Amino acid sequence: MSRLQAQDVQVRLGGRPVVDGVTAALESGTVTAILGPNGAGKSTLLACLAGLRRPQSGRVELDRDDVLAMAPRARARRIGVLPQTQEVAWAVEARILVGLGRTPFIGSSGLSIEDAAAIDRAMAAAGVVDLADRDVTTLSGGERGRVLIARALAGEPEWLLADEPLTGLDPGHQLDAGELFRSLAHDRGKGVIVTLHDLSLAARIADRVIVMAAGKVLADGPPAQALSPDVMARAYGVRARVVEGQGGPLIEIVGRGG
Amino acid sequence: MPRMTCRRTTLLVLGILLVLLSLVSMAAGRVWVPLSDWLNPGDPRWSIIFELRLPRTILAIAVGAALGMAGAAMQGYTRNPLADPGALGVSSMGALGAVLTLYLGAGAAEPWVITSFAMLGALVAVFLLLALSGRASSIVTFVLAGVILQTMAGAGVALALSLAPNPWAVNEIVNWLMGSLADRSMPEVQTALPLIVVGCGLLLMIGRSLDALTLGETGARSLGVNMAAVRWMLALGVALTAGASVAVTGVIGFVGLIVPHLLRPLVGAQPGGLLWPSALGGAVLVLAADIAVRLTPAAGEVKLGVAMAVLGGPFFFALLLSLRRRIA
Predict the structure, then answer these.
(1) Do the chains contact at A90 and B79, CB–CB below 8 Å?
(2) By three-state DSSP, how is residue B254 classified?
(3) Which of A85, A90, A104 sits opposite B224 (nearest CB)?
(4) Is residue B41 assigned to a domain?
(5) Under DSSP, is residue A29 helix (H, G, I), strand (E, B) or coil?
(6) Which residues of A touch B229 (CB under 8 A)?
(7) Is residue B280 part of a domain?
(8) Packing angle of the helix pair A141-154, A113-125 (nearest 10 deg)
(9) Does the CA dihedral B97-B98-B100-B106 come out positive or negative?
(10) Probe site for chain B from A43, A86, A103 (most B CB atoms < 10 A)
(11) Nearest-by-Cβ selection for B215 from A73, A100, A106
(12) Is the Cβ–Cβ distance between B78 and B146 less than 8 Å?
């Protein structure tokens, strides 16, 4: 089992604290969703956890190693990141784009048979096998999102840190991707951390929910506990109620105001 | 056609073209020397071939390859198909560096001094370019940064011209601005070739990182790419290749702009995979252009840099038009 731990992480941007003293220990084998209003510091925290951003104070440890002290390639093999921007600069085929996920493993000799197998598995898992030969820049936003998920899976990292991976996907593919994240965590023992905006989706796919507001952790626990009306009121300034739906709890936003 | 087959075919065709054009380049000119006469050292034309045309041919290949690869690498790093040492002022800044050596006194006319200054000018230009365009690397800021560099280099050269100590210096400066391969000899090859080889080596080493940059800077960093190292290797690689080229031939623009753009549909758009083909394509383009200017009937020889600009200007314009959608 692996453990990714933030200790009193603080990030300031232009004098304003964006992440303000966050401490959280994340464990592999679970799906953790980070929620919160715009500007709550979700993406910044995720970047710190991924070792891509140096906090002004505090530290992030992966199994007791400082992530910032790890060699970039070694870190990239263990922590996979799916950035929020769906940037793809060149008109390359989907399979080539997914292959970029193998970058931390590629030596001078190019893609090995092992690499090719990992690419195949990742594309199958993300359901994009039929898009393999398509030029990524001609895909729809949702298709591109799924190809990029496959890209993040191709490195087969112990940890997958995804910044709003479900945005832009239709409901069916949101469900597929959610199931994929759950199976990565529960069946394969990976650590999955996702930032999300959809509360009901978070309640459905996450084992643990961290709600952030103004850079601080407002609530941290199982969805039923962390997504309480009281927390929703304080985080988003909305009145919400939890309805038991058929597929899981639904968070209904009743209106503005706490 | 499957991508790999298409890629191999393209490289093969370019390789064959390069060999054929090299032979033509050795044979063609004011005096035609058929292949049958090449191996007869007693023939007076032997020295034309081996003392004039051989260095010229080697330089055309080396400079073309250098500029092609530098353009492809800059485009990969900036994720911008308009990046090119010539179009964005890197070559001009290199030329300015070379021009400035004329003011350092007679002792500074040594080839290595001129070459060092040209590379220094190019290095400064690459860093200014990266600093001016920032991290956003939008196409517009990039082109504007290039305009600023061109203007700065132009102003510097204009100043150098007006302060020129003698007509000989004026002539020399003009030669830097309009690149040419005429009357080059083996010492120039010996100066430029090793630097170009090292520069290309540096650029080839960052090929995989350039591939990863397809996913943006965050994406590349998350894949273990050390961006600071890549930036330095790119800057040094471009400074060596473009700087050494400018030092021996003057400014030859647009090679790095035209070649990767034409090759992308044939060998794939992956920036790292485009480095070798662009070097090959650049060599073919410069060699072909040099043969063309040599054979153009004119009182004097048309300068190669001028010919490339005549070809490249409209190409740049067309490329910009085709990118309008992305820019808007």
Answers:
(1) yes
(2) coil
(3) A104
(4) no
(5) coil
(6) none
(7) yes
(8) 140
(9) positive
(10) A103
(11) A100
(12) no
The 10s digit of each residue's pLDDT in A191-209 is 999 999 999 999 999 999 9
Domains and CATH numbers, chain A: 3-84+157-256 (3.40.50.300)
- Identify all chain B residues contacting A74, using CB atoms and an 8 Å cutoff: 224
Give this prediction's pTM.
0.91
Residue B173 lies in a domain: yes
Detail the DSSP E strand segments found in chain B: none
Predicted pLDDT of residue B134: 66
CATH of the domain at B109: 1.10.3470.10
Q: Compute the distance between CA of residue B45 and CA of residue A34 in angstroms, rounded to an integer.
A: 78
Instruction: Answer whether residue B49 shows pLDDT above 60.
Output: yes
- What is residue B111's predicted lDDT score, i.e. its pLDDT? 77
Cβ–Cβ < 8 Å for A82, A163:
yes
DSSP state for residue B301 in the 8-state scheme: P
Its sign, for the CA torsion B241, B245, B247, B253, is negative
Question: Number of C-alpha atoms within 13 angstroms, CB side, residue B27?
Answer: 13
The count of structural domains within chain B is 1
Pick the residue of A53, A81, A90 with the most B CBs within 10 A to test the interface with B by mutation.
A90
Q: Do A104 and B268 touch (CB under 8 A)?
A: no
CA A100 distance to own-chain centroid: 18
- B271 in A contact zone (CB under 8 Å): yes
Place of tokens 């940890």: A159
B111 token code pair: 């080839």
The angle subtended at Cα B15 by Cα B14 and Cα B20, nearest 5°, is 95
Q: What is residue B242's predicted lDDT score, i.e. its pLDDT?
A: 94
Host domain of residue B258:
54-327
Residue B123 burial (CB count, 10 A) = 21
Residue ranges of chain A whose CB lies within 8 Å of a chain B CB? 47, 50, 52, 71-77, 79-81, 83, 85, 87-93, 96-97, 100-101, 103-104, 106, 148, 151, 155
DSSP state of A228: -
Q: What is the pLDDT of residues B179-192, one digit of tens each?
A: 888 888 888 898 89
Cα(A239)–Cα(A258) distance, integer angstroms: 5
Residue of A47, A92, A155 with shortest CB distance to B214: A92
- State the burial class of residue B131 (Cβ atoms within 10 Å of its Cβ: 0-12, 13-18, 19+): exposed
Reported as a single tens digit per residue, the pLDDT across A150-186 is 999 999 999 999 999 998 899 999 999 999 999 999 9
Q: Residue A196 has what pLDDT?
A: 94
